[in-house]
């Protein structure tokens, strides 16, 4: 072997050893990785690579984020960023980014896609997106990469210790059921029937992820959508009030999701499924804003029209300056400050916030 060939072989061996050491370190962590599925509440840039109107890769999104506008639908950090910080795991990169390969996937991958839902058709009015079924397919693609990096036993342990975060269902209402002029479910299903439809479909999707090796699941419910600026802006409720009818509609999904979590835990004792009570936590923020140092609960920080919610945040619009005291960032999404409150309570809170255990407790199982 010549000098050049020997140097090349040595460099390759060194790279392999470094990679193996990194994998060993990741597998030794209590929570080695986060796998994120869902919509814009947990999106970190997948839609930047899709032909869609549902993007947040422009100012003023990210105005309070160190890397500016990345595709997060927030003025700052996302729910996943906070989960990662609280668990000691790096926030995973977006699946659609071509650079999401190799060592970049050792802390997990984010598959979430704005405008997506549990149902394939939800959000189609925005263009391309990755619905939940497609996100599961994308996860399978990532598994093929892992199989080239770890032996089967190591991969099984890695997946079992990781946490799957699932935040979806919002667009099945906002961009499906509640838009009966575009979609048919609003005509064809009662609110309870539609909630059951979503829960049954999501249940199959969670079982598909379980069959692929994931064992720890955080499943977030839908928040009080009748209180977001976009729904307030419809004028269906008096000024300053939430649209109670919409909140009642999403309640059927949340009740069904919690029941599904109980059933999954009974059926799969090798796993843990957790229900994140989004409705309860955000409702507490809206009902008791001073407790969390919020001043503005009924309009967006960035947007156009009534309650700044008729048209969501547009490029180069300058947002409000008191973002720390505002619950809603744009027509649909909480501010970074409100997201932090939910994240902290999901990780550390009592059973009213996270059932049957919180995320920190799940990490110890």
UniProtKB/TrEMBL annotation:
GO cellular component, one term: extracellular region
CDD domains, sorted: SGNH_plant_lipase_like (cd01837)
Secretion signal span: 1-28
Keywords from the named record: Hydrolase, Lipid degradation, Lipid metabolism, Secreted, Signal
One matching Pfam family: Lipase_GDSL
Family indicated by similarity: Belongs to the 'GDSL' lipolytic enzyme family.
Name listed for the protein in its UniProt record: Zeta-carotene desaturase
């Amino acid at each position: 072997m010549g000098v050049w060939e020997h140097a090349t072989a040595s460099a390759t061996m060194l790279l392999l050893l470094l990679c193996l050491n990194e994998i060993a370190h990741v597998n030794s962590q209590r929570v080695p990785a986060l796998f994120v599925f869902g919509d814009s509440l947990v999106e970190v840039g997948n839609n930047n690579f899709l032909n869609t109107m549902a993007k947040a890769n422009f100012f003023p999104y990210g105005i309070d984020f160190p890397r500016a506008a990345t595709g997060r639908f927030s003025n700052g950090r996302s729910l996943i960023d906070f989960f990662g910080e609280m668990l000691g795991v790096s926030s995973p990169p977006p699946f659609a980014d071509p650079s999401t390969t190799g060592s970049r996937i050792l802390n997990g991958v984010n598959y979430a896609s704005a405008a997506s839902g549990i149902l394939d058709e939800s959000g189609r009015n925005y263009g391309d997106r990755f619905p939940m079924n497609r996100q599961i397919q994308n996860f399978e693609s990532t598994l093929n990469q892992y199989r080239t990096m770890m032996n089967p036993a190591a991969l099984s342990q890695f997946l079992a210790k990781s946490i799957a975060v699932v935040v979806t269902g919002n667009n099945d209402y906002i961009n499906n059921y509640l838009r009966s002029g575009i979609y048919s479910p609003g005509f064809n299903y009662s609110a309870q029937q539609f909630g059951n439809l979503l829960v049954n479909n999501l249940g199959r999707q969670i079982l598909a992820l379980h069959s692929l090796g994931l064992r720890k699941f955080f499943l977030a419910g839908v928040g009080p959508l009748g209180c977001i600026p976009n729904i307030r802006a419809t004028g269906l409720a008096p000024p300053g009030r939430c649209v109670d009818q919409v909140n009642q509609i999403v309640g059927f999904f949340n009740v069904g999701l919690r029941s599904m979590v109980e059933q999954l835990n009974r059926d799969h004792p090798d796993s843990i499924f957790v229900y994140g009570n989004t409705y309860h936590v955000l409702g507490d923020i809206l009902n008791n804003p001073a407790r969390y140092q919020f001043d503005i609960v009924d309009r967006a920080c960035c947007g156009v029209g009534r309650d700044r919610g008729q048209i969501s945040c547009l490029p180069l619009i300058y947002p409000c300056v008191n973002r720390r005291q505002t619950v809603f960032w744009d027509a649909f999404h909480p501010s970074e400050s409100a997201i932090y409150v939910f994240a902290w309570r999901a990780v550390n809170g009592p059973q009213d916030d996270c059932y049957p255990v919180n995320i920190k407790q799940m990490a110890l199982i």
